[in-house]
Each structure stands twice: as structure tokens, then as C-alpha cells.
């Protein structure tokens, strides 16, 4: 079964999303420069049990690239509005990389909508992040990025990436992930959205948005953490630290995998996700659930 691509206008902006299957809703959120297509390898194994909703976040894929707010909170609100328009009240939210940060923000802002939380090589859990993403925050990147993403330079970049892989200078796969992502920035709108998105969460020193001070709140929310053992974009140490800080969470490490564990072994990923949902009762939180936990 394949994801069916659809479009919807949300607050006047076109949002593309992919959907398949029937059953409890899995909300799948992709990473920066990526799109809902990243979930294609796991659809067949999941669509028989779940309704899959996988949006292209604003500024990504085929969704609109408006001039506006690309913070984690804005993305979380946009996802909530899409779900409301589709008639889905409660979901298990699965977020990869940037999508993990959005997923955590979604659970924090809208606890009444979130049954479970699944973080896949997630951002927002530590300072370290790949140099190329930090470079996008340097002043002047606005002028350099159009040159780096031109067709000729993208071809050269592919050759450089191949040479790096042959020289074992980077874990296999992750250089390709970054190269493919940068190659997707083929319009002024997508480049602007990318820069605003990255600068909302990263600076030259690394990730500047962190959920670490709120991870203890996840004690009431079933949480699964999935990471690639050889992730060179966001190090696996972030996953181990988050697991320690989130009471009752489960950590699954994909041996030999890089930043895309759901691509490295899609059958195992789908099986782990299915088993997690089957064996954890959904949380039933209220909109003001966090208030008592935040009181002095």
C-alpha cells in the first residue's frame, strides 16, 4: 500500500499530506529538508493497523513556503490545525530529527491530543549537531545557499559525497542524507523556509532549543526513542541521555544505522512501532494537564 498524496488549505496556505490505512492515527513528522515521502518504506507494514497521516511541514516538500513563523511551536500548531480539519482528535505522534522536536512541542502544547510519543534520531535533546547544519546559521548563508544548491554544484557535491564515503570519512548514508536535503532546496521559497527553520533551532554552536528541562513530564506519556548507532548528524548519546531523563521510556538502538533508522531497517522499525503501540495504553491527558506539575 502506498501513501496517497492530498492537499488542503490551512489558514490560506497549501499543506500537502500523505495518508493511508485505517485504525488508530499515527502522525508522522519528517526532518528538515525532508518530506512525508521519507515514511514510504514503512507504510506497507503499518497501514493494515493504523491510519497514517504524514504532512509536509510548511516550507518542506510540496507544502507552501510562506514568509512567516517556522519555530517548533508554529509547526506544532500547524499540525494540530491539520488534524482538526481532518477530524482526528488524538494521535500517536512520531517525529524524526526536526520532526522529533516538533513532536515534543506538540505533546507539550496539546497533551489532550497526544496518546504516545515516538522520537526518531530526534533534535532538541542536546547541543551537538552536524557542522553543515550549523553552517546554515552563519551570516551570509542566505547568499551562499543559492550557489550551493545550483544544479552544477549539486552534481559536484554528489561526487564529493561519494569520495568521502569511499574514504570512510563519514558514516555511510548520512552524507547522502544531507546532500539530498540540500539538493531539494531548488527555489527561493524553499531556501528561505529552510534558513528560517534551521535558525529557529540551531546556531553556530549547535542546537539552541532543548527539551531537556521538561523531559520529566513524559512520565505520564508512553515514549519510544529510536536511534541509529552510527548517527553522525545527531549523536546517539542524545538518545541515551533522553532515555535516562524520561521515566518509563523505551530505547531501541539500530545497530549499523545512521540518521535514518526507518530506512536502514524498515521492517524492524515498523515492528517495533507496532509492538510499542499494542503494548502501551494510550495516555488520556487534559489540555491543562501540565499545570499542577508546573506549580510552585
Account of the 3D structure:
The protein has 296 residues and is an alpha/beta fold. The chain folds into 2 domains: 4-128 and 209-294, 3-Layer(aba) Sandwich (Rossmann fold), CATH 3.40.50; 131-203. 40% of the residues lie in helices and 18% in strands. The protein is built from 12 helices and 10 strands. The chain has helices at 40-46, 72-86, 98-109, 131-135, 141-148, 151-166, 174-183, 188-201, 237-245, 261-264, 266-279, 291-294, and strands at 4-10, 13-20, 25-29, 51-55, 91-96, 114-120, 202-203, 206-207, 223-228, 250-254. The strands form 2 sheets. An 8-stranded mixed β-sheet has the order 1-2-4-3-5-6-9-10, sandwiched between helices. It has a two-stranded antiparallel sheet with strand order 7-8. A hairpin with a 2-residue loop joins strand 7 (202-203) and strand 8. The protein is globular, with a radius of gyration of 18 Å. Residues 167-171 have low confidence and may be disordered. InterPro entries: AB_hydrolase_1, AB_hydrolase_fold, AB_hydrolase_sf. GO terms for molecular function: hydrolase activity. This is Alpha/beta hydrolase. It holds the Pfam family Abhydrolase_1. It comes from Solirubrobacter deserti.
Amino acid at each position: 500500500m502506498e501513501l496517497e498524496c492530498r492537499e488542503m488549505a490551512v489558514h490560506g496556505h497549501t499543506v500537502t499530506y500523505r495518508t493511508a490505512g485505517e485504525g488508530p492515527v499515527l502522525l508522522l513528522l519528517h526532518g528538515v529538508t525532508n518530506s512525508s515521502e521519507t515514511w514510504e518504506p514503512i507504510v506497507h507494514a503499518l497501514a493494515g493497523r493504523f491510519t497514517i497521516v504524514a504532512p509536509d511541514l510548511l516550507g518542506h516538500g510540496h507544502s507552501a513556503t510562506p514568509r512567516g513563523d517556522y519555530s517548533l511551536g508554529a509547526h506544532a500548531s500547524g499540525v494540530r490545525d491539520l488534524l482538526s480539519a481532518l477530524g482526528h482528535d488524538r494521535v500517536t505522534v512520531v517525529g524524526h530529527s526536526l520532526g522529533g522536536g516538533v513532536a515534543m512541542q506538540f505533546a507539550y502544547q496539546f497533551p489532550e491530543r497526544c496518546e504516545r510519543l515516538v522520537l526518531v534520531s530526534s533534535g532538541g535533546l542536546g547541543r551537538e549537531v552536524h557542522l553543515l547544519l550549523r553552517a546554515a546559521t552563519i551570516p551570509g548563508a542566505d547568499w551562499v545557499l543559492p550557489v550551493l544548491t545550483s544544479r552544477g554544484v549539486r552534481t559536484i557535491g554528489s561526487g564529493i559525497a561519494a569520495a568521502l564515503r569511499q574514504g570512510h570519512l563519514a558514516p555511510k548514508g548520512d552524507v547522502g542524507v544531507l546532500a539530498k536535503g540540500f539538493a531539494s532546496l531548488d527555489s527561493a521559497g524553499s531556501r528561505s523556509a529552510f534558513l528560517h527553520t534551521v535558525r529557529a533551532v540551531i546556531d553556530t554552536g549547535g542546537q539552541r532549543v532543548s527539551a531537556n528541562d521538561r523531559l520529566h513530564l513524559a512520565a505520564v506519556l508512553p515514549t519510544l526513542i529510536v536511534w541509529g548507532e552510527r548517527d553522525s548528524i545527531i549523536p546517539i548519546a542524545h538518545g541515551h541521555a533522553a532515555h535516562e531523563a524520561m521515566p518509563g521510556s523505551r530505547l531501541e538502538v539500530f545497530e549499523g544505522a545512521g540518521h535514518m533508522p526507518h530506512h536502514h531497517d524498515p521492517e524492524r522499525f515498523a515492528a517495533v512501532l507496532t509492538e510499542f503501540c499494542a503494548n502501551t495504553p494510550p495516555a488520556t491527558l487534559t489540555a491543562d494537564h501540565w499545570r499542577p506539575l508546573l506549580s510552585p
